[in-house]
Write a structure and sequence with these properties.
The complex is a heterodimer of chains A (485) and B (306). Chain A is of the alpha+beta class. Chain A has 16 helices and 11 strands. In chain A, strand 1 and strand 2 form a beta hairpin. In chain B, helix 5 links the parallel strand 8 and strand 9. The chains are: A alpha+beta (485), B alpha/beta (306).
Chain lengths: 485, 306
């Protein structure tokens, strides 16, 4: 079958190409796009140093909001946390950027920030770089382009407000607070005076070790080391457990529907197959009705200790229900294809139905059942809708790979989502490849359906079946002999 | 007979061997990368089923809290949780659920076990109270937030007034589903003030004809932000705090606070929580601990004055 081979090859090549592209995107995604210049920025985004400058910034934070919450019952105005007692504070006001530096801090570097324009510019350069790294889409100092005002005074009047720096509330915790001037009319909105307040510590540049964000391959390995792999284990655990149920139930259902009378058979088949065609949300909904707290049935079950919703067993049930038809159908198809005469022959030889099923039907149908199991496994791994409905999204418990993809993507972590997409594609690819290889391996077990070699295969099968019948016969005669003596 | 058995066994063996190899390939690929860092917890199946031992709890007894919180808290809250665990090693947190507040209230009503509920509007918390799922005595306003309009980073869209939302330059506007997403109903309240939405409550109404075609409804405020970040909508209504948890979006316009109800996040302990006292302690910690305040400030959550 050269045509078929070529097709398969084409599919493989295409898949590999997609995987390479995905790998490529992942490699470049975590690379930060920060401008280098003379400023070196720490990977954490909280520290920066400027080449040739004696001071650097550490423990930087951008407070986008403060709080007006009373401290121990006492109104302390609207307050923003500062990095420490010696910390600087940069208050982005409507009309200016007010930068506070404690006199002791300036002195410790032998500088006067209120006068020394070179020092001011260096600090602003550091501040702008750190601000840009921490703004995350909020207004940046660069965009605002406010005139900078430096102060070492710990209380500054601005419009009808007072801004205090270095206010210690709890021991070791310092704040910048904004209070209204007592006689200001109308009372100003203290929460809206500052757009945001930035803070950090000035440290000697030579004591600060800046670690640049990793790039390229390092970023990739870093990404893999920090990755949360639990979705993979949850998926594997859920699918494997579901397979145990699917295997037993699927075979039982296949046999049951075979044994039933014509009409019952059709109905049973419809019931067993319907999860395959129903949208997973319908299955999820029904499971929620059966096991959830909002219905009588669910409440009855909960009262009797069966509390399944939003737990791992629920994920297993969801996976079992959706993947069950795949095994059921392949098994039933394989059973139906078996020669009725052969089974009858076994019956005439006194084999019980159970023995026929386990010793004759099952081994003969095995290749199909195996392929069906793997397919069902893949389906269980890919289950999303019903699982989300009844089991929710609990990391390490019910968060399977498909659910992780959705929530990581929507949560803004598209690199993690891409990783899981890649893993799921890889697994699906391996599964289908496995089925193909296995099918080729066991082709001699099947009645050939292709045009070429059909006869040989069929002949081979006949020989095999004859062999079975011969074996059955010889065993029977052995038994008879045994009875005879 | 012997022959039959043998055939069966051989193919079974081959199948198992192949299946094992598949599992092995997949797990080594991941396991190598994981550097053995993440082994699945064997007991995690029961972790969220709320079957924690009830009854009297000594102070140091291990407690696991399950939090249901508004979607916008997705980045900030886990940091505060980690802080709490570092100070109270006996308290751990089950995977907190961050969804649209309306969805969380529905799930709570549906029987999902939780200890704490934090929603993004008083209305959704009221519903949970009406459902009898909340210990009302523990309810308090935790945070305030602002409603803003965001655009994709680097986009040249300009919004200088609320009416620009229906401007000719805008073809898609992402808004949260008002039934489940409080940010959506706040947005609709603002849109009502300029005649683009039909009810002042921001719920159950219709968008003005012509504008309705531009509206993309999303199931959480995070999804709104994501839709804008990917460029599938030019603008979207989110909270200020959402800026700081998504890349690729930037502030375009602050929606005037007087056009919508005050945005407050009430938090409360869930009725019947087995860990009610610890849950209450955590809520108090969120609002008073100075290190927690730093986290909220950086993520743009204003701790409510009272």
């Amino acid at each position: 079958m050269p045509q078929e081979m070529r097709n398969r090859l084409r599919v493989i090549v295409r898949t590999v190409m997609v995987l390479i592209v995905l790998m490529g995107t992942m490699l470049f995604m975590p690379v930060s796009a920060l401008a280098a210049g003379e400023i070196s920025l720490d990977a954490s985004g909280t520290a920066a140093a400027l080449e040739g400058v004696s001071f650097a910034v550490d423990d930087f934070a951008r407070n986008n909001k403060g709080t007006a919450r009373a401290y121990e019952g006492e109104d302390r105005g609207y307050r923003y946390p500062l990095a420490g007692q010696a910390a600087f504070a940069a208050v982005a006001l409507e009309d200016e950027l007010l930068i506070y530096l404690p006199r002791e801090t300036s002195a410790s570097f032998g500088l006067d920030f209120t006068e020394d324009t070179a020092a001011q510019e260096n600090l602003l350069a550091l501040l702008f770089a750190l601000d840009e790294a921490n703004a995350d889409g909020g207004l940046t100092l660069k965009q605002l382009d406010l005139p900078a005002v430096f102060t070492s005074s710990d209380s500054v009047a601005h419009e009808s407000c007072l801004i205090h720096f270095g206010v210690e509330l709890e021991p070791g915790y310092y704040y910048a607070t904004i209070t209204a001037e007592p006689d200001a009319r109308p009372a100003p909105d203290i929460s809206k005076q500052a757009l945001f307040v930035e803070t950090g510590m000035l440290v000697p540049a030579d004591t600060l070790a800046i670690q640049a964000a990793p790039e390229g391959w390092d970023a990739f390995t870093n990404f893999l080391t920090n990755m949360d792999y639990r979705p993979f284990w949850v998926s594997l655990r859920t699918s494997l457990t579901a397979m145990i149920f699917v295997f037993v139930l699927g075979l039982a259902a296949a046999r049951l529907s075979l044994k039933a009378s014509e009409h019952v058979k059709d109905v049973l088949d419809a019931v067993f197959t319907i999860p395959m065609v129903l949208p997973p949300t319908v299955i999820g909904f029904l499971l929620l009705v059966v096991f959830g707290n909002s219905t009588d049935v669910g409440r009855w079950l909960i009262d009797h200790g069966i509390e399944l919703v939003f737990s791992w067993p629920a994920a297993v049930i969801a996976a079992t229900v959706v993947s069950f038809p795949l095994l059921y159908r392949t098994a039933r198809g394989a059973f139906e294809a078996q020669d009725a005469n052969m089974l009858d022959a076994a019956r005439t030889l006194g084999w019980g139905e159970g023995r026929i099923f386990f010793k004759l039907m099952l081994p003969l149908a095995w290749p199909s059942i195996a392929a069906g199991t793997v397919l069902a496994f893949a389906r269980a791994m890919g289950e999303f809708g019903a699982t989300l409905f009844v089991a929710g999204n609990y990391a390490g418990v019910t968060q399977t790979m498909p659910i992780a993809i959705y929530f990581q993507w929507m949560g803004g972590r598209s690199d993690v989502a891409t990783f899981w997409v890649f893993v799921v594609i890889l697994i699906s690819f391996v599964v289908i490849l496995f089925i193909n290889l296995y099918a080729r391996h066991t082709q001699k077990f099947r009645l050939g359906t292709g045009t070429k070699g059909e006869r040989e295969e069929r002949d081979e099968k006949d020989v095999k079946e004859e062999k079975y019948v011969r074996d059955v016969k010889s065993e029977k005669s052995e038994k008879d002999e045994g009875r005879g003596t | 007979m012997f022959q039959v058995k043998k055939e069966g066994k051989r193919s079974t063996g081959r199948f198992v061997a192949l299946l094992l190899s598949v599992v092995l390939i997949a797990s080594t690929a991941l396991g190598l990368a994981a550097c053995g860092g993440n082994t699945p917890a064997p007991d995690s199946g029961t972790a969220s089923s709320g079957s924690a031992s009830s009854g009297a709890e000594p102070a140091a007894a291990a407690v696991e809290l399950q939090i249901f919180a508004a979607n916008s808290l997705e980045r900030a809250l886990p940091e505060v949780q980690a802080l709490y665990t570092s100070e109270n090693p006996n308290v751990s947190f089950a995977d907190s659920q961050f969804k649209g507040s309306g969805d969380l209230v529905t799930e709570l009503q549906g029987g999902a076990p939780a200890d704490i509920l934090i929603t993004a509007s008083s209305a959704t918390m009221d519903t949970a109270v009406e459902n009898g799922n909340i210990d009302e005595a523990t309810r308090s306003n935790m945070f305030q937030n602002d409603l803003i309009i965001v655009k994709q980073a680097g986009s040249d869209v300009t919004i200088s007034a609320l009416t620009d939302v229906n401007g000719s330059a805008i073809s898609k506007v992402a808004i949260g589903d008002a039934d489940a997403v409080p940010a959506g109903s706040y947005a609709n309240q603002s849109l009502f003030t300029i005649g683009l939405y039909s009810t002042d409550s921001g719920k159950g109404g219709e968008y003005l004809e012509g504008f309705a075609d531009k509206v993309v409804i999303q199931s959480s405020v995070g999804n709104v932000a994501k839709t804008v970040a990917t460029g599938d909508a030019q603008i979207g209504f989110v909270y200020t705090s959402d800026l700081y948890r998504y890349d690729d979006i930037e502030q375009a316009f602050v929606v005037p606070a007087d056009t919508h109800k005050n945005i407050v996040y009430p938090g409360a302990v869930v009725a019947g929580s087995a860990n009610a006292s610890e849950a209450d302690r955590f809520l108090e910690f969120c609002l008073t601990n100075p290190d927690a305040l730093r986290i909220w400030a950086q993520y743009g959550f204003e701790v409510a004055a009272s």
